[in-house]
Amino acid sequence: MLLVLCVDLDDDLGRKAGVETPVVGREAVERAAVALATTDPEDSDSNVLFEGLHIHDDIADERIDVAAVAGVESGGVAANRRVGEEVDTILAGLATGEDVRALVVTDGAQDESVLPVIRSRLPVDGVRRVVVRQAQNLESIYYTMKQVLDDPETRGTILVPLGILLLIYPLVALADLFGVPGAAVIGFISALLGLYVLFRGLGLERAVDESVARARNGLYAGRVMLITSVVALALLAIGGVSGVRALDAAAAGGTLPPVDAAAAFVVGAVPWAAAAGVTSSVGRITDTYLAERFRWRYLNAPFYVLAIAAVLHGVGAFLLGDVGLSYMAVALTAGTLLGLVSTLAFAIAESRSPSVPEPA
């Protein structure tokens, strides 16, 4: 049996004509079509119903029937679910032992979004889209644009570059009022657009969103790591400045070999970098302790940082000639022993402490 199924996804039949769905049978569908066309002659769903009647009469087979189903005004998943329920109701009411197949009639791409729901209940032989000749593809274009603008990812990809481009002329005109060269404004906007395209192309927006989410969660959860991370970044910045100043002082107006230049920078920056590493690791250890996920081996981190800093400072100072070989030997030995002793001590402490399951 062939079922000509007319789909009204936004329920114009119920909202405008007061027709309860599903509507089954030629006479019932004809009355519903006349009622909707009388209420709103411009509604395209009335064309769908009349097209369903036309197909029914054109085939002229005893094993054919016509029906109309409707969704809800809001559309989306709720409308698809209601259409599925009404199709189930129609199938349950058909007194036939034959396999039922459907010919779906719609008025555009929006209603055709329900096709997977219909196919999950009965085979679909075909889809007939009814479009008013004076408005060919108008609804499909509107629906496509609406879907693009409703998608946050697509909206950001298309509208943001377009908005930046549209700002070029007004910003150039505003810059002329203040005596700023228009070329500088165009260059600045071009740089923004280029950075945005690179940002989207490399997929960095997800990493930034995740970082912001982690920072927000840490702020509300009272995580010490958030504060120590900020302090560590400040110490690293100071270390960079200190390293540059040490490099300038070592050069004293001349040019240093690459190895000596690197050594001078390391000697100036290592103490601050070590302080940043210790601060950051202490913050993380504190958070793990508060979250009851503490392990003794986590305490190795600040000692490892100090050990590495001692080794780098000793080697850098020796390369610059500020210290002798004995100092470098002591620094290397102290750094190595510090790492080994801390590892051994905390391993013993962890083996003797109660075991706590690792976090998932």
Describe the structure.
68% of the residues lie in helices and 8% in strands. The radius of gyration is 37 Å and the shape is elongated. The longest helix has 33 residues, at 258-290. It is built from 14 helices and five strands. Strands 2-3-1-4-5 form a five-stranded mixed beta sheet, with helices on both faces. The mean pLDDT is 82. It has helices at residues 12-17, 26-39, 45-59, 76-93, 115-119, 138-150, 152-166, 168-177, 182-201, 204-221, 224-251, 258-290, 300-320, 325-352, and strands spanning 2-8, 23-24, 64-70, 101-106, 124-129. The chain folds into three domains: 2-141, no CATH class; 152-202; 221-352, no CATH class. α5 links the parallel β4 and β5. α2 (26-39) packs antiparallel against α3 and α11 runs antiparallel to α12 (258-290). The protein is an alpha/beta fold.
